[in-house]
Specification:
Shape: globular
Radius of gyration: 20 Å
Largest sheet: 9 strands, mixed
Distance between the termini: 27 Å
Helix content: 25-40%
Strand content: 15-25%
Number of helices: 16
Number of strands: 16
Structural class: alpha+beta
């Protein structure tokens, strides 16, 4: 186990607050906002105030990182969707913008204004595409009537409570699977304090007003994460964008019922996920499988739910996916088996340390092999999978786990989480070495970064 660096969020970034928001002649819109020193690859940022103010702070404090994230998406999204940036901007304007509530319109425009104040140019449609990059692939797939996956399947996660955990209270954990190109940029810890709704402590990518891999804890005692539904098809252009509903659910949910209602309202099917939720005040957990046509909520005060991109409801599988449910060797099925093994092994002892061990696990449950990192292990290494196992990399480039997070009930109550950037197992990814072996991904060379494994770090936002 790697050593743990404990980083009190406010202590890390307090001295930066003076320079950022209270300096002579500083913009009053920066009041209350902080950017801290980088810690183990993470950039801690506090945003506070009304929607336009929070957006301005976000754009101002992370202007260069947002410009970099935009450059990544301008390279990646046209490659993945086979549509150019002009088309994607128009789609965001015509399909998504009319259904973005005023609160989040103000925040998105504030973000553009904050970037401009730092001399970084982007307009509202660029930022809208950036926020909707995950669900725009579902939209283009609908237009093309394609049966291929809208986006690669992402993430391994669990939530547990009752007799399954060490203290009988909820524990939640998640690792983010992405292409290393974009995933190496998923390195911000946001302490968000909006004037309305819950305070939020979440991981995220620069320029996004939601987490996007959706790990967050809130002042209402709610903890949220998700994994993508594998091989899903479906998109309703008349629906509310997924990024809006995901942010709104974190900001305004005070219960599992609230979360369920907000995610269903205006559901557009974009970036369809299985959501895992913990309510630490009621000691209850839930799994919301949110398809477009089929939606299923399960909840319990004594049990565990896992996620690894496998659909659950047979009706959803038949009507909305091409998922190979009977092929146990595919990544999602093998990881589901491994989660079930680990939940049984740790039953009654599940805590944050058990979560860390699980998120770093390298057991291939299909081939019954330990120490075999690949796309079939909970800590994903698509790039290390044997040729023929890795359709994701063949189409989208090198990919796997890019970071991990975990929290227990006490941490949620204290507005804390632990996070590790890179593979939590300790293995590193070298961009130069990979490109030398795989010149077919040379199109990523200008922006592909190394992804070193870094220690677990605790962030606190009291």
């Amino acid at each position: 186990m790697k050593s743990q660096a404990v980083v009190p969020f406010l202590l890390v970034i307090g001295f930066v607050a003076i320079a950022a928001s209270c300096g002579k002649g500083s913009d009053p819109r920066l009041a209350g906002s902080w950017r801290g020193d980088e810690r183990n690859g993470w950039i801690p940022v506090r945003l506070q105030g009304g929607p336009a103010q929070i957006g301005f702070q976000h754009g101002y404090l992370l202007a260069q990182e947002i410009a970099d994230a935009l450059a990544v998406q301008k390279l990646l999204l046209p490659h993945d969707t086979k549509r150019d940036w002009i088309f994607l901007r128009a789609a965001a304007e015509k399909v998504l913008w009319p259904r973005v509530p005023e609160e989040y319109r103000l925040e998105l425009q504030g973000l553009v204004d904050g970037m401009a104040a730092r001399g970084v140019k982007a307009d509202i449609w660029d930022i809208l595409v950036l926020n909707a990059n995950l669900e725009l692939s579902y939209y283009t797939k609908m237009l093309d009537k394609s049966k291929s996956p809208a986006a690669p399947e992402k993430c391994s996660a669990f939530v547990a409570t009752g007799s399954w955990t060490r203290d009988g209270r909820p524990v939640i954990a998640h690792n983010n699977w992405s292409g290393y190109l974009e995933g190496s940029r998923w390195n911000v810890i946001f302490d968000m304090r909006p004037e309305k709704g819950n305070r939020i402590l979440m991981d995220g990518m620069p320029g996004l007003i939601h987490s996007a891999d959706d790990f967050g804890v809130t002042s209402a005692g709610i903890a949220i994460t998700e994994t993508t539904i594998g091989s899903f098809s479906g998109f309703d252009p008349a629906g509310v964008p997924e990024f809006v509903r995901a942010r709104k659910a974190m900001q305004y949910s005070a219960s599992i019922d609230d979360f369920d209602r907000i995610m269903r309202e205006g559901n557009n099917g974009g970036y369809a996920n299985t959501w895992l939720v913990a309510d630490v005040k009621r000691n209850e957990i839930a799994r919301l499988e949110l398809g477009l046509k089929n939606v299923t909520l399960e909840r319990t005060k004594d049990g565990a739910f896992v996620g690894a991109n496998f659909p659950i409801n047979p009706k959803l599988i038949a009507e909305e996916t091409d998922f190979p449910a009977n092929e146990q060797g595919v990544s999602s099925c093998a990881r589901r088996t491994r989660w079930e093994q680990l939940m049984a092994e740790f039953k009654g002892k599940i805590d944050v340390e058990a979560a860390k061990r699980s998120l770093a696990d390298h057991t291939d449950a299909y081939e019954k092999k330990d120490g075999a990192p690949s796309e079939r292990t909970l800590c994903g290494h698509v790039d290390l999978s044997p040729r023929g196992m890795k359709p994701w990399q063949d189409e989208f480039g090198p990919a796997g786990t890019v970071q991990a997070k975990a929290a227990d009930a006490g941490m949620v109550e204290g507005m804390e989480l632990e996070a590790a950037l890179g593979h939590p197992c300790g293995l590193n990814f070298s961009a130069a070495e990979h490109l030398a072996k795989h010149p077919e991904y040379a199109w990523q060379k200008p922006l592909l970064r190394d992804l070193p494994s870094r220690p677990w770090t605790r962030f606190t936002a009291p």
